[in-house]
Structure formats: C-alpha cells, structure tokens
Amino acid sequence: MTDCTSSPEGIARLLQDCRTIAVVGLSSNPARPSYRVARYMQQQGKVVIPVNPRETDVLGERAYPSLSAVPGAIDLVNVFRRSEEAGAVVDEAIRIQAKAVWLQEGVLDEAAALRARQAGLQVVMDRCWLKEYVRCVGE
After folding, report:
1. Angle CA(123)–CA(70)–CA(88) in degrees, nearest 5?
2. Integer Cα distance of 16 and 54 in angstroms
3. How is 27-70 classified by DSSP, letter by letter?
4. How many other CB atoms sit within 10 Å of the CB of residue 105?
5. pTM as predicted
6. From first to last of its 139 residues, what are the pLDDT tens digits of the chain?
7. pLDDT for 5
8. Please, which residues have CB within 8 angstroms of residue 131's CB and are 6 or more apart in sequence?
9. pLDDT reported for residue 6
C-alpha cells in the first residue's frame, strides 16, 4: 500500500475500505475523545476493537491488552497515545500485518511513520479520524 496522507482521495478510500479498526488507547470514559471517535466508528458500521490493558470492555466490545492479543485480522490501527508511545504501537501494527495506521491529531512520529510505510502500511498522521470521515465520506 502507498502513503495516503497527501491525497484526500486516498484518505477517503482508506476510511471506506477499512472495516475492522483496533483503537489503541480506547477509554471507557464517554468524555474522552477516543470514546467519542470509536462510538462514531461503530455507528458507521465499523468493527471497533478496543486495545487498552486497563479496560475489559468498551462500547460493548471486549478490550485487549495489546494488538498482538487481538484474534483475527485488523485493517486499521487507530492510535490514541502520546507521540512518544506511538512508535511502539506502530511497530506492533507492522508485526501483526495491519493494513494501515492512523495517528490521531497531535500524535506525531515521523520515524515510526517511515517504518510503517517501508513495511507497506498506509499511514495517516496528526489527523482526526472522525473529522476526516465527516469531510471525506459524509454522515
């Protein structure tokens, strides 16, 4: 896969094609952005897999402590972690052969993004999944 960060069409295609989304850092707290974004993903028909070692269940879905613990294939890994923690998540996404990684607004790690691209993953960085979905796909 190719980098789609500079192409609105590529982002729109990624948003439409990725159906199974692991949300790393998903919180069960409805006030948290990760919760609101993941809930919206579910409302759009996406399969949301919570990845957070501090949670057992979020949005009616079983939570997993790591990406490696998730059974089955993952299309997109959405990262709600601090920038300094993103690299480890991206490396795990590469190991499990996810198709793409999405680093939420404010999450930046150029070196990790480069590793993901070199491994064939699509990369979106420093953008909000929900805002991009509304902009590209519509409600």
Report:
1. 45
2. 30
3. -S-TTSHHHHHHHHHHHTT-EEEEE-TT-SEETTEE-BSSGGGS
4. 15
5. 0.93
6. 334 455 788 898 899 999 999 999 999 999 999 999 999 999 999 999 999 999 999 999 999 999 999 999 999 999 999 999 999 999 999 999 999 999 999 999 999 999 999 999 999 999 999 999 998 876 5
7. 56
8. 105
9. 57
Domains annotated on the chain, with CATH: 8-136 (3.40.50.720)
- Which residues does residue 125 pair with via DSSP β-bridges, in sequence order? 103
| d(C-alpha 36, C-alpha 129), whole Å | 11
Inter-CA distances, 36 with 21, 43, 113, Å: 14, 11, 25
4: which 2 tokens? Answer: 């789609």
Cα 11 to Cα 41, 77, 100: the distances in Å are: 15, 14, 11
Alpha-carbon distance 37 to 23, whole Å? 9
Q: At what angle do helices 129-136 and 33-43 cross, to 10 degrees?
A: 40
